Amino acid sequence: MESHVMAAEQRRRLWQVGLACLAVGMSLWAILAGPIALAMPESWHWPERMAARTLAMPMWEGGQRLMRAASPESFAGIVAPSLNRDTG
Predict the structure, then answer these.
(1) What is the DSSP secondary-structure string of 11-76?
(2) pLDDT class for 86, splitting at 50, 70, 90?
(3) How far is the C-alpha of 42 from the C-alpha of 46, rounded, in Å?
(4) How far from 28 is each of 19, 21, 31, CA to CA, in Å?
(5) Nearest to 37 by CA among 22, 58, 56, 52
(6) For 78, which DSSP code?
(7) Are 11 and 17 in contact (CB under 8 A)?
(8) Residues 49, 58: contact at Cβ < 8 Å?
(9) How many CB atoms lie under 10 A from the CB of residue 52?
(10) CB atoms near residue 79 (< 10 Å)
(11) Which pLDDT tens digit goes with each residue over 12-47?
(12) Residue 39: C-alpha distances to residues 21, 33, 35, 36 (Å)
């Protein structure tokens, strides 16, 4: 009987430790992901890839969306010449 109680206690503690480790891991990832990405060589483009993955878009379309959101007027100025050239 006592071994059954000990096994149940071990399972309960294992779940507690597992959930605590999961919470700590998620917190560390949230805190350290940005600094780690910025510390990598620039040629790896980790911040850009993370932004594109967050938007669930390819890097090109994600970049356009970010530019449009940051400054619609400037984005329109970038896009307008290419639109005029295509229609001309």
Answers:
(1) HHHHHHHHHHHHHHHHHHHHHHHHHHHHHS-GGG-HHHHHHHHHHTS-HHHHHHHHHHHH-HHHHH
(2) low
(3) 8
(4) 14, 10, 5
(5) 52
(6) H
(7) no
(8) no
(9) 19
(10) 13
(11) 999 999 999 999 999 999 999 889 988 999 999 988
(12) 25, 10, 6, 5
Please give the C-alpha separations between residue 66 and each of 7, 17, 35, 70, in angstroms, as whole numbers: 53, 40, 20, 6
Site of tokens 């993955």: 53
- Name the least confident of 2-6, 75-79, 83-87: 83-87
For the CA atoms of 23, 28, 34, 38, what is the dihedral angle to 10 degrees? -150
Residues composing the chain: 88
